Amino acid sequence: MTALETWELRAEFARRLSAMYGREVPAYNTLVEVSTEVNEAYAAKHGAEAERLGSIARVTAERHGAIRVGSPKEMAQVARVFAAFGMYPVGFYDLRDASSSSVPVVSTAFRPIDGAELAKNPFRVFTSMLAAEDPRFFDQELRVELAAFIGARQLFGEELLTLADKAAADGGLAADDADRLLELATAAFELSGDPVDYEWYKKLEAVSAVASDIGGVSTTHINHLTPRVLDIDELYKRMQDRGISMIDEIQGPPRWDGPDLLLRQTSFRALGENRVFRYADGSTSEGELRVRFGEVEARGMALTVAGRDLYDRMVAESDARLAVAPAGTTRVEVAAGVWAENLPRTEKELALQGLAFFTYRLDDAALDSASLRSAPLAGTASLAGLVEAGIAVPEPIVYEDFLPRSAAGIFQSNLTEEGSKDEAQLGTSYDIHRMSEIVGSEVHDPNDLYQRQQDASIAALAHRLNITITH
């Protein structure tokens, strides 16, 4: 094994986690197999258009993982581990009020933030931290017990953290160190065979199955690993045809006849896994837990702040219409109608209305057209004018992040009980700034990253045309 650069470490980390998770959850292998089949069929049917939002090689290799930790200390340590792989915190997600079930976590996602790094390998890990201080979920006694239990465990050993810090500082590792880092990092997210304290686990499960999965065991583990698919509706159908039990519906935007936007997700239902339980009298026996599931995603275009505002209004309108719709009407059916009424159906119109993020490519043929030769560009031009003239061609920027409601919906769909939540209590305050303090580095705002990418392409276009481009 030769020395590995950061992106190579990241790619190998994703590959090893995928192999490990496939051994632990064999249905995940079926999900990957069907995803690959769907992507190949979609590419054969749509040709170059299939790669509009990323090359087939990237899409087929793409994964996002999900893990859960219990405290700010653990969150800061996992941030050090992911930094070794060029994965940095992006976005803040508060799932505590994003669904009707009790989901007492706040989250960020660790991923590459540079376009070139994303193109090489876009592995990302949605990382949730138990909001163990929130009195709506945990009373004073339980908060003290949780702090003691989580404070006594060690998820990430010193050797792993030291190697991770070295990899982050040096932009990679020499062969032996790289192999050891990958070995330790992969093992840190392996499902443990340690006995689970039955009474303690059940005490937390009464609050939330997510809480027991985080604070009721001695280690963390991959909760799900998600391939990316180009036609999620076809994937959903094929999985059902294979006898795999899927959650009731696809989360996120509906299928419609316009451009793919943001993120659509679905999963197969959590499967029963054998675990050893330890009881108060010291005895042990095998039992079953259902906490891990297989998720799949289809990524669309990143929306601007204005686009997200419109998206949020459409979600609210869909909810309002569904509430008064005839029995049997699905959310997806209602949302498709709302989308058709409110959204432009072309990328060009989304660009002109400032609803989505794009990079802009120069069309030399349009620039050399007869009409422009007689009236050459000079001084200043508007971006909209260049797009209308076909000189600036908008190329969509892929949405690399997550939707709180969809994430909570996936969690909720795989829970067997609603859990409990005391709405009379005032919830603990978390936001992107507090999460930055917790992880020990800036949590990047996704919109800033997309805007930076768009602005850079406009600046490059202006330089090539030797003009100033106004918005």
UniProtKB/TrEMBL annotation:
Keyword Oxidoreductase: yes
Catalytic activity, EC: 1.13.11.93
Essential cofactor(s): Fe(2+)
UniProt entry keywords in alphabetical sequence: Dioxygenase, Iron, Oxidoreductase
Pfam families in alphabetical order: HGLS (PF07063)
CDD domains xrefs: VOC_YdcJ_like
Highest taxon above the source species: Bacteria
PANTHER family, alphabetized: 2-OXOADIPATE DIOXYGENASE_DECARBOXYLASE, PTHR39479
Family named by the database record: Belongs to the 2-oxoadipate dioxygenase/decarboxylase family.
Name the record gives this protein: 2-oxoadipate dioxygenase/decarboxylase
Taxonomic source organism: Arthrobacter humicola
Lineage: Bacteria, Bacillati, Actinomycetota, Actinomycetes, Micrococcales
